[in-house]
Each structure stands twice: as C-alpha cells, then as structure tokens.
Amino acid sequence: MRRLFVVLFGRGSTGRSYLSGETLTKPFQVVTARLIIREWHDLDDPEGVLAAMFQSPRYARFIDDRPGEEIRADTREKARLLLDACRSPVGANYAVVLRASVPARQSIIGQCGIFPADRPDERSIGFGIAEAYWGNGYALEVARALIDHCFTQVSPRVTAVLADTHRENLAAQRVLLRCGMALQLTAHDERVVGRRTRAEHIPTS
Ligand SMILES: CC(C)(COP(=O)(O)OP(=O)(O)OC[C@H]1O[C@@H](n2cnc3c(N)ncnc32)[C@H](O)[C@@H]1OP(=O)(O)O)[C@@H](O)C(=O)NCCC(=O)NCCS
Fold it and tell me: Which numbered atom of ligand 1 lies nearest the CA of 59?
C-alpha cells in the first residue's frame, strides 16, 4: 500500500485524488467540547508554532525526515514546507486551539489536517499535540472530530477515513483504536494504518 498522507509528516500530495465537484467549506472550523480546529491565521505565526512543537525530541521521535516524503518541521523553513505540502483540494493543515484560552491570546496546542488518500472516496487525517498538553485526551478529541467532519461535512461519497503512523508510535495507535479505527500493519514499510468506514461511523452530533 502506498503511504498515506498525514499531517505530522506533511508528505507531498502528488498523485492523490479526490471526488470531482467537491468544494471545501471556507473558512474551515470545527468546534469540539474543549477545542477549536481552524485554519491558521498569519498572526498565529504558524511556522514558529510548528517549529517549536517539532523541536521537542519526544514529539518528533517517530517522524523520519525525508524531504518529499516526511517533514520534521523543526525549523521555520521546514514548517512552511509542511504547510504548503499539506494544502490540497480536500483540506490542509489546521491549528488546534484551546477554547478556554483568552481570544486575544489563543493557545494553540496542536496541529492536524485532512488530506487526500490513495482512493478518491477516502480521506486521510493526521494530528499532533504539543508535548506539554499530552495525556489530556486532546488528540482523541481532534481525531474524532476530523473523522466525523469527513463523513458528515466533506461529502456523502466519502466511504472511509484513514490515518497512518510509525509502528512504534503506540500512543497514536491507541488514539486511532479509540476512534474506532481498525489497525493494520503495512507490508512494505511497516507503518500502522488505521481505517474507519462510513458504515462503522456513529456521528457525534
Ligand atoms: C500521539 C499523540 C498525538 C497523543 O496525544 P495526546 O493528546 O496525549 O493523546 P490522548 O491523551 O488523546 O490519548 C493518548 C492515548 O495513548 C495512550 N498512551 C500514551 N502513551 C502511550 C504509550 N507509550 N504506549 C501506549 N499507549 C500510550 C494514553 O494512555 C491514551 O490512551 P487512553 O486514553 O486509553 O489512556 C501525541 O503524543 C503527539 O502529538 N505525538 C507526536 C505526533 C504524533 O505522533 N502524532 C500521531 C499521528 S498519527
């Protein structure tokens, strides 16, 4: 299986396909119990925020740095590359913001995204939470919201949502499992792919 596009790696979207006639809702925003998932604003300093996140060795532990394949966005330049690589007709990289933060100084605690998958009727998601905020269920909240968004807002023709991760990234796999994804080890590069189909999906709203 060809590798899936996931946000934390920021692989190029060349060759990915999407449903014809599909349009994105602009601006993208999803609100959950504790979070707002939204497009980056220039004032956020997305490159600076991403670079700081990726500079944590524990955060970047499972992210290989292979330009064109995976981007460890630990510099502003690489963060820009990641943001550009994530932009596609079906989505982009988004900021994860704590709802409880003061609007004028919003706390960005993570990043995530929706991307094309190998099949036009499937979507891939990715997510990462800044290390200081780990263990609070935020990644689960983001992943569930993205899956729900793909099935209920993107297109009724989206049949499955996927995510992939390093085979040793057990925390990410736990999040995917708790989202109801079935996990499978890929044959070629030993990554773990999670997959949830529309038939399995229970809308959250
Ligand atoms: C993976 C990641 C997103 C998890 O973020 P988080 O907000 O801490 O995740 P949550 O709190 O929602 O849930 C983490 C789950 O993994 C479990 N977990 C954490 N570390 C673990 C480990 N080493 N082994 C197994 N499970 C682990 C937690 O117990 C929790 O499961 P539970 O709710 O059943 O107890 C975060 O570690 C991260 O951003 N890592 C770097 C980027 C990345 O790897 N992204 C994954 C993309 S697929």
Answer: 41
Beta bridge partners of 116: 123
User: Strand pairing of 191-197 and 182-185?
Assistant: antiparallel
**Buried b / exposed e along 41-79 (16+ C-beta atoms within 10 A):** eeebebbebbbbbbeeeebbebbeeeeeebbbbbeeebb
Q: What is the pTM of this model?
A: 0.90
Q: Is the peptide bond before 89 cis (omega within 30 degrees of 0)?
A: no
pLDDT tens track for 154-183: 778 899 999 999 999 999 999 999 999 999
CA of 176 from ligand 1 middle (Å) equals 9
The rounded Cα 80 to chain-centroid distance in angstroms is: 16
Q: Which atom of ligand 1 lies at the shortest distance from residue 138's CA? A: 7
Q: Which residue minimizes the CA distance to atom 12 of ligand 1?
A: 137
| pLDDT tens sequence across 106-129 | 799 999 999 999 999 999 999 999
Task: Tell me the domains of the chain and their CATH numbers.
Answer: 29-200 (3.40.630.30)
